[in-house]
Amino acid sequence: MSLLVKICGLSTRETLDVALEAGADMVGFVFFPPSPRHLSLDIARELGRQAKGRAVKVALTVDADDVTLENVVETLQPDILQLHGRETIARVRDIKQRFGLQVMKVLAVETAADLAPLVGYAAVADRILFDARAPKGATRPGGLGAVFDWHVLEQLELDMPFMVSGGLNADNVADAVRVTRAGGVDISSGVERSPGIKDPELIRAFIRAARAAEHQSAFAITDDR
Fold first, then answer.
1. Global pTM value
2. Cβ proximity of 51 and 75 under 8 Å
């Protein structure tokens, strides 16, 4: 399968267009007020129309209530809901049933012990995103540019799609894919010139590097055989 590339935290027509034209498979939109990437519903509606049919639309929320989720779903019409908070397994199941959309649950990782809840979430979510655990006192759970130890996932056996995030950039994405064998990569701060402000050249460079990593991984599998 092809490596899925997700550019998250897009907030302008210009940078969304860059991501789409560069070949992003997924585009992420943030609905969480403490984040510098938070979108108003009016802007989200416009960007959702722009991305429709060109990439998978992902709505990122953090411990959102049903009213918030209803507004996001109605406005953006996302393909996937990304749950980036402390949502319980039961809450993930309820959201999936209520909205009838694919759900990607984010699991914060620092050590192998953080994988303990994985079995439960894997039973109710459609895919998992492994992200670096935010430091104590952080005002948001992701988009902080922190990297986790990818070797925690090295022996992972997971019969469902999963992606990795956290501190990725054009220079390290190949190593992340090689070590984790993830089916997708997700980036936000790594393609920004300042918090919340995407850089078109960094977006293009990351997608090029991810595609190169995908080919290297395919060759490695062939060589192993």
1. 0.92
2. no
